[in-house]
């Protein structure tokens, strides 16, 4: 049950949030680092058997398990998206390593999930095998049967984390609809060890529209430590502020991942002016008893957000039992929809060529 705050307390929180967004804190938390930027295998090669993954590729009302947005019945895309919007997803794949990769039925299902979105930010890649991800991208692009070949590429970060069981953050994106600025890719620098796993940052642009009108945005891919989630959410507020104030001056920053907290308990991050969780009031885990995952935007800036978002219910969409779905992950993917066109603060299509500036 949320406490009833006085007007004075509310004003103080608003002032602190504004001050925090404008400056102060760990100015050097976001610096360039060597994220691995690998190209996907060439199309035409075949999916390798599971035994060959080491080979190189040729408190208020209770939550309900429903989608959010303007319409509670919104469903995520069943077919590859081709309209004037893109769908960005976040998916904690729960310890994707050699053991999970050895289950062909799981990997085929994971690949099918990826193909439903234009960009997927993935957490918990846990393997010392450098060929696991390229082979998985190959499976995404070459599903076999009567499915058309796709052209997904990927960006994978370095192994991060405090324990010996480190993980990598991953972006998969449809190259026919999205391109990445590879010079923009970096891992957050965390010299004071405030974060369990340093987030991976990358800037993307939509394709298929005039470059001067294409939506350009930066994604910050993260997973918090569930033991110190409050402290990490406070640190993520600083990460978000610094990424927005970086040399790129990109105001469309989308913070995604596994927050280990619901939209009502984001602590310092949730107190920042304009911060808006696109996933609200729904479960995001497979057991349907917690909300962990989200895509968070600065609502006044990111007018490209269409208001449509939700949770991709793996059990219902594939007619699986809970146990079968847990083989894939203990999380469901979450997604949000955005216009392919860059928009100004009034929601009008912005032409950078005419304006001479991005906004």
UniProtKB/TrEMBL annotation:
<feature type="compositionally biased region" description="Polar residues">
    <location>
        <begin position="32"/>
        <end position="73"/>
    </location>
</feature>
<dbReference type="GO" id="GO:0006308">
    <property type="term" value="P:DNA catabolic process"/>
</dbReference>
<dbReference type="GO" id="GO:0004527">
    <property type="term" value="F:exonuclease activity"/>
</dbReference>
<dbReference type="InterPro" id="IPR016202">
    <property type="entry name" value="DNase_I"/>
</dbReference>
<dbReference type="Pfam" id="PF03372">
    <property type="entry name" value="Exo_endo_phos"/>
</dbReference>
<dbReference type="InterPro" id="IPR005135">
    <property type="entry name" value="Endo/exonuclease/phosphatase"/>
</dbReference>
<comment type="similarity">
    <text>Belongs to the DNase I family.</text>
</comment>
<dbReference type="InterPro" id="IPR036691">
    <property type="entry name" value="Endo/exonu/phosph_ase_sf"/>
</dbReference>
<dbReference type="GO" id="GO:0004519">
    <property type="term" value="F:endonuclease activity"/>
</dbReference>
<keyword id="KW-0540">Nuclease</keyword>
<protein>
    <submittedName>
        <fullName>Endonuclease/Exonuclease/phosphatase family protein</fullName>
    </submittedName>
</protein>
<keyword id="KW-0269">Exonuclease</keyword>
<keyword id="KW-0378">Hydrolase</keyword>
<feature type="domain" description="Endonuclease/exonuclease/phosphatase">
    <location>
        <begin position="89"/>
        <end position="259"/>
    </location>
</feature>
<dbReference type="GO" id="GO:0004536">
    <property type="term" value="F:DNA nuclease activity"/>
</dbReference>
<feature type="region of interest" description="Disordered">
    <location>
        <begin position="32"/>
        <end position="81"/>
    </location>
</feature>
<keyword id="KW-0255">Endonuclease</keyword>
